[in-house]
Every structure is written in C-alpha cells, then in structure tokens.
C-alpha cells in the first residue's frame, strides 16, 4: 500500500454548540478518485473548507504529500498543489471566461512587477503563453467558444466547467471538487465524468469529490467515504458502500432500510 | 508599437508642447491642478475601483506627500524633486501598513477606519507645530531644478504633466497585466482568488500602498503649485472630495480619474456666480452618479467595458 497523498486525521470542527465534524479520518491514495458522500448537512463542505484552509479545525490534522496543512492559509495550500472548486461557484463574474482561467495561471505568469509596469521585454510573449494555456484548458472542459463571455453571464453548467478549468490552471496535483454535479443535467454529468477520468489518466491527478448524488460518484470513484451528521459511517469500494445498511438508512430513512433488508 | 499607439503618443507629445503657446499662465496653472488632482484620484481608481477596498484616507496621503516634501526641503535642504518621491515612498509604506487592517475590517467599517486615519493625520499636522507650522500652516519652498526655480503654473507644467503622464501609463500597464487581473479578481471574490494561490491580504495592502504613493506624489506636486500648506486642506471633507472625483469620473478606469478631475476643477470656473453653492453642486453630482451611473462618466463614454484600457479594462 502506497503512502496516501492526502491524509485527514481525527478532524473535528464545532460551530458554537454544533458539531460539524467529529473525528474524521480519511486517506486519499495518489491517483485515486475518492468520493465523500452524505446527505445535506453531513459536513462534506466543511471538510473541504478545512482541507483548503478556510476553516480551522478544532482538533486533528491534515497532511498533504507529507506536509502538515493545519496552520497554512488558503493561498499557501493552493501553492502546495491543491486546487478546488466551490459548491455555489465563486467565479470572477465581471471578467471573461478566459480571464478567469488566466487568474488560475497567475502564479506561473513568468514576469515580474517591472515588466508589468513597462510592458517591457518578454511581456507580450508571457501574456500570449498564459492566454494559450488558458485557452487549452477551456478547450479541455469544452467551453472554448465562450472564452470571451463574461463569466457571470454563462449558464450554470458552463460556470461549473469554467471553475474546473480555472482550478486546473493552478497546475495542481490534487483537485477538490465541491458538488461538481449539482444542478447539472444527465448529459452534462456524463461529460463531466469523462473529463475527470481523462484528467486522472492523462495528468495523473488525484481527485477528491464530494456530492450527495450517489449515481454520479459511484460510477467513477475508486473509493467512497460516507458522512452523516459529521461522522464517518462507512468507507470502501462503491459496491460495498451501496450495500451498506447504515448508508441506506442515512439516505432513505429507517423504514426504507428495513424494507430493503427484509 | 502599433500604429494606433504611435499616433496616440505623437498627438500627446505634440499637444504637450503646443499647450504652453496656446494657453495663458493661469490656464496652465489649471492644467497642472487637473493633473495632480487626477493623480490623486488615480490612487482611488487603484485601491477602490480595482481592488475594491474603500479608502477615505486619500487626503491624509496627499498631506503626507505635501508636508513631507516641504519639511524635507526646509529642514534638511532636500530639493523637492527628491523629496516628493521620498515622501511618496514613505506614504506607500504607511499605506501598506494601513492595508493590514483589511484583514479585520471591510466595507463600511473599512471606510470608517480609513476616515479615522485621515482625522488622525490631520490632527498630527495641526499639533506638531514645530515642524508643520501648526494650524497656521507652512509655506512651501519653490521647486528648484538645475539651479532654476519653477514657480508659476507655466513653469511647473513641465514637471507636473510629464510626471502625471508617466504614472498614468505605468498604472495602465499594471492593470493590463497578471497583477492587474489579480487585483480585480480580489475585488470580485477574495475566497476564490485565495484558492488560486493569490495572497489576498498582501494584494490589498499593495493596493493601499500604490494609492498612497499616487496620493502623496500628487500632494507633493500640489504643494509648490499652491505654495502654501494649510492643514485644513487635508481633512475628511477632502478625502470625500477626492472620492467624489473618482466616482463621478468613473472608478473603474484611469480615464475616469482624468475626466473627474477635469469636471471638478473646471465646474467652479463656469459657476462663478454660484460659488457658495459649489459644495451642493458637487454633492448632487456625487449622489446622481452613485444612483444613476455608478460607472461614472467614463462608463458612459466608453460603453463597452474593457474596450480599451483607458476605457475600463480595470473591471
């Protein structure tokens, strides 16, 4: 067994008197597509926000490629190679789709403040390289034709894809996707699945995605963790998780679980 | 350089050398006044329009630039041409420190905090009598360069206008670079831009530093033009006045700063008879633009956003 790329150990988060996460342990293997599922309010988004440094956990630790993330700020965590998307999309609405992706490529821009102030030597070349790179990513997620559209004016499905392209522009080793399929139509979910599988195959990306739509995640995930009320209630291969009575109970309620069991 | 920018540059330089032959000295004085006012407003284009951080500290930085350059000259004999950029750098550092408060406060509270800074700095000007001249103010030594003293608007024109032009070009260039995009992205979603690896606090502080530098250089150039520093010129009403200029001109583009400065400097000329109502006119302008045309005059003139950098690429 290889060392996990991302290791979440005994993470606990409280908001006032509410326990959002209670001693969560999850290991994500390098190159895996790992899903975290659970009903609304299970603590999935909280977990992603802890990993990316938006929330501070009251207990436990997160390590990525051997480095502890606990005290790091969101931008430091991005620089280590973790990119994310947001549940309700957090695009730069007044910028074009292309510019949004170019923000993702900001850190690899390759010129400094002096060249920026003078538009001096190397500026045009560096800018057109950034633009080409951003264009390639828009192509990859299938919205190249919308490059010049304002991000805020794109339909929701395309905004989700744009967020994915923007996250990829930071050149991550790992992607965290917060409900990537929410609000998408069946055909769009199919396309998203193919993109994710392709990214893993061609770029060796590790993907951690959270969702409450089981149908999506069970199809492409290597491993699934189920959260409910801030606790881990099951973990394993998709087929195992699907058959787990606790999971059925969490999703469908006690009576339904009994009905299926009997 | 494309043909268009070449034409633009040639026209600009031609106009620069032609104006002194076409305008009277008083009019050149007004051109200078427009230029420094535009420079001060450009600081607000950067920090508020681009980076989205409301600043009512601009009058304080203008004061630091003016007093700094004048004190350096009278106390230590530093010529204004060196004292002005030095004061600008000091103000930029102060702006960077002020920018750190954005870690804790934003929006209305940030506006109040920066307003407090203006009040405190003005009190310092009034009460540090021995170096600032206190409430009575202090005279500004003349701008000397190469053994020549530049005193009239017509003479200072050759310093003020090129300095302003160069700073506008630099700001315009930065806006159209990866750094400008990072500033604009910070305004639109701090949480997302941080997830792209951008250090949000650092960028906000840098925006404050840049606005402070522009304000202080503007103030430093304004000092020899006005020839006297009165602490009442650097209070909260002036901070709001500069904000009004930037808003009416259009906060989102460098052109807005110029347009706003032209409007606010020239209106009093055309309203000589209404001098006592000027404050009301400015207030109505500000209110009207905030409610009806939040993108300001430049937003009205250059309809398509982002058509040109001077028209609004600072989205």
Automatic annotation (TrEMBL), chain A:
Stated name of the protein: ABC transporter ATP-binding protein
Coiled coil: none
Gene Ontology MF terms in the entry: ATP binding; ATP hydrolysis activity; L-isoleucine transmembrane transporter activity; L-phenylalanine transmembrane transporter activity; L-valine transmembrane transporter activity
Lineage: Bacteria, Pseudomonadati, Pseudomonadota, Alphaproteobacteria, Rhodospirillales
GO terms for biological process, alphabetical: D-alanine transmembrane transport; L-alanine transport; L-isoleucine import across plasma membrane; L-valine import across plasma membrane
Keywords from the named record: ATP-binding, Nucleotide-binding, Transport
InterPro entries: AAA+_ATPase, ABC_AA/LPS_Transport, ABC_transporter-like_ATP-bd, BCA_ABC_TP_C, P-loop_NTPase
UniProt source species: Oceanibaculum pacificum
Domain ABC transporter: residue ranges: 6-254
A GO cellular component entry from the record: plasma membrane
Gene3D superfamilies: P-loop containing nucleotide triphosphate hydrolases (3.40.50.300)
SUPFAM superfamilies the record matches: P-loop containing nucleoside triphosphate hydrolases
Pfam family, one: ABC_tran
Automatic annotation (TrEMBL), chain B:
GO MF annotation terms: branched-chain amino acid transmembrane transporter activity
Transmembrane segments: 28-47, 54-74, 80-98, 110-128, 156-175, 205-228, 240-267, 274-293
Keywords: Cell membrane, Membrane, Transmembrane, Transmembrane helix
Any single GO CC term annotated in Swiss-Prot or TrEMBL for this entry: plasma membrane
Location (main, coarse): membrane
Domain of life: Bacteria
Compartments where located: Cell membrane
Membrane topology classification: Multi-pass membrane protein
Pfam family name, one: BPD_transp_2
Protein name: Branched-chain amino acid ABC transporter permease
Organism: Oceanibaculum pacificum
Phylogenetic lineage: Bacteria, Pseudomonadati, Pseudomonadota, Alphaproteobacteria, Rhodospirillales
């Amino acid at each position: 067994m290889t060392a996990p790329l991302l290791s979440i150990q005994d993470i606990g988060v409280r908001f006032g008197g509410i326990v959002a996460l209670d001693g969560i342990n999850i290991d994500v293997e390098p190159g895996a597509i790992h899903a975290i599922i659970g009903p609304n309010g299970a603590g999935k988004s909280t977990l992603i926000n802890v990993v990316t440094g938006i929330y501070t956990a009251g207990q436990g630790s997160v390590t990525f490629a051997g480095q502890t993330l606990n005290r790091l700020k969101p931008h430091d965590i991005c620089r280590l190679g973790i990119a994310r998307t947001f549940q309700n999309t957090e695009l730069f609405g007044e910028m074009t789709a292309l510019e949004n992706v170019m923000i993702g490529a900001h850190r690899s821009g390759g010129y400094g403040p002096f060249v920026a102030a003078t538009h001096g030597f190397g500026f045009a070349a560096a800018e057109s390289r950034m633009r080409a790179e951003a264009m390639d990513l828009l192509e990859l997620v299938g919205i190249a034709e919308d490059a010049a559209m304002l991000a805020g004016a794109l339909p929701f499905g395309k905004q989700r894809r744009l967020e994915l392209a923007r996250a990829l522009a930071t050149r991550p080793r790992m992607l965290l996707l917060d409900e990537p399929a929410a609000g998408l139509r069946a055909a769009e979910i199919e396309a998203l699945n193919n993109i994710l599988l392709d990214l893993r195959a061609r770029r060796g990306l590790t993907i951690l995605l959270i969702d409450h739509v089981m149908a999506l995640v069970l199809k492409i995930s290597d491993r699934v963790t189920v959260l409910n009320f801030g606790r881990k209630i099951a973990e394993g291969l998709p087929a195992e998780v699907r058959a787990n009575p606790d999971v059925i109970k969490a999703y469908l309620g006690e009576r339904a679980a009994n009905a299926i069991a009997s | 350089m494309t043909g268009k920018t070449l034409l633009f540059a040639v026209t600009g330089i031609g106009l620069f050398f032609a104006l002194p032959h076409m305008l009277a000295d008083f009019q050149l004085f007004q051109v200078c006044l427009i230029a420094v006012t535009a420079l001060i407003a450009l600081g607000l284009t950067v920090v508020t329009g681009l980076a989205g951080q409301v600043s009512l500290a601009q009058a304080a930085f203008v004061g630091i630039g003016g007093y700094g350059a004048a004190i350096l000259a009278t106390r230590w004999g530093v010529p204004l041409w060196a004292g002005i950029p030095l004061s600008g750098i000091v103000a930029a550092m102060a702006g960077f420190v002020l920018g750190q408060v954005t870690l804790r406060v934003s929006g209305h509270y940030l506006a109040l905090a920066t307003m407090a800074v203006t009040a405190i700095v003005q009190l310092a000007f009034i009460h540090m009598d021995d170096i600032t001249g206190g409430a009575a103010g202090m005279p500004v030594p003349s701008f000397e360069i190469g053994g020549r003293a530049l005193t009239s608007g017509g003479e200072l024109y050759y310093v003020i206008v090129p300095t302003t032009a160069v700073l506008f070009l630099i700001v315009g260039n930065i806006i159209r670079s990866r750094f400008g995009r990072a500033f604009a992205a910070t305004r639109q979603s701090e949480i997302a831009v941080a997830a792209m690896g951008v250090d949000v606090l650092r960028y906000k502080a840098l925006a404050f530093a840049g606005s402070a530098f522009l304000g202080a250089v503007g103030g430093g150039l304004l000092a020899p033009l006005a020839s006297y520093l009165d602490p009442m010129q650097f209070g909260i009403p002036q901070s709001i006045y500069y904000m009004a200029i930037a808003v009416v001109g259009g906060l989102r583009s460098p052109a807005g700063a110029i347009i706003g400065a032209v409007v606010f400097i020239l209106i009093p000329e055309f309203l000589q008879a209404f001098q006592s109502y000027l404050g009301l006119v400015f207030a109505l302008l500000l209110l009207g633009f905030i409610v009806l045309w939040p993108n300001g005059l430049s937003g009205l003139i250059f309809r398509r956003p982002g058509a040109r950098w001077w028209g609004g690429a600072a989205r």
